[in-house]
Amino acid sequence: MSLSAAQATGAEAVFDAMVRSMRVEAKDILSLELVRTDGVDWPVAAPGAHVDLQVPGVGVRQYSVLPSDATRSLWIGVQRDPGTRGGSRWVHDSLRPAQGVRVGAPRNHFALDTGSGPACLIGGGIGITPLLAMADALQRTQRAWELHYCVRSRDRAGFAALLQRYGERVQLHVDDEAGAPLDIEGLVHQAAPGTHFYCCGPAAMLRGFAGATAHLPPECCHVEHFAAPAVSAELPSGSFVVALARTGGEFVVSPVCSILDVLLDAGVDVPHSCRSGVCGSCETRVVAGTPDHRDVVLSPRERAEGKTLMVCCSRASGDRIVLDL
Ligand code: FES
């Protein structure tokens, strides 16, 4: 559901906005400054948050929010993706300053822990963007932290203006020059007890991170995925019934369909984007029943609570689930 800027108030709000400026950060990476056309400040974006950008003819794409000194400006970073389905290509090739865009309110599935212990941030490529906002917040609260920024080559290292604020807390790792990927296992091994680890980057990096942190308490390990692990949507499952608490109606979800497919076929308007359990756009409240989670968005605690599920990929663990729709 899209609302006008005047109506927009909640997490699903969508704002009319304009590109005020664009900056080349590095090879194939742009940052965009977005301002609301109604002249009002953006809702607060917690560190790690992202926004939905509506791409004409393509759909909704998610981009992490960069730190900004002005609440009137919302900055995002966009890397041209060679495997793009059109989102980043449109931003790089067609979007220009003064052009209008529609942007969702910030949402966050990659939050900083609220404790006072040390934090180790590990970002690969454009995966640095949510970590920049975290670095900014950590610096303001004077917590112990370090950021490891991994790029394939030096010309792909962006956001120099932001990173130089933090001096030696930021370590740049250039794969081409080092001859090997970052030693995540070594970092974890050397870290102070109680450190929280955050990782956002390509699949190979996330696999390395998962292996290096497997022995740590899950609540200390935080990841954000660009794409779903290949196996997440392939688990076997039987049919079940999905019931809608607010609008009524019951539908059978067969083993070869997602809840989202069934709801869209029935004319139920459900926000969605990636359809693979990565972006969080389709998160829906559960009224009754137990979800069988298959996304990579929810934290272990959120999965155990079972209060929401991603209807694009997750299912019911029993024969019926009731959703707040
Ligand atoms: S549409 Fe992206 S998580 Fe469901």
Automatic annotation (TrEMBL):
CDD domains: fer2 (cd00207), PDR_like (cd06185). Keywords: 2Fe-2S, Flavoprotein, Iron, Iron-sulfur, Metal-binding, Oxidoreductase. One of its GO terms (molecular function) is 2 iron, 2 sulfur cluster binding. InterPro entries: 2Fe-2S_ferredoxin-like_sf, 2Fe-2S_ferredoxin-type, 2Fe2S_fd_BS, Beta-grasp_dom_sf, FAD-bd_FR_type, FNR_nucleotide-bd, MRET, OxRdtase_FAD/NAD-bd. Residues 240-325 form the 2Fe-2S ferredoxin-type domain. The keyword Flavoprotein applies. Transmembrane segments: none annotated. The keyword Iron applies. Pfam families: Fer2 (PF00111), NAD_binding_1 (PF00175). Residues 12-113 form the FAD-binding FR-type domain. PROSITE patterns: 2FE2S_FER_1 (PS00197), 2FE2S_FER_2 (PS51085), FAD_FR (PS51384). This is Oxidoreductase. It comes from Acidovorax cavernicola.
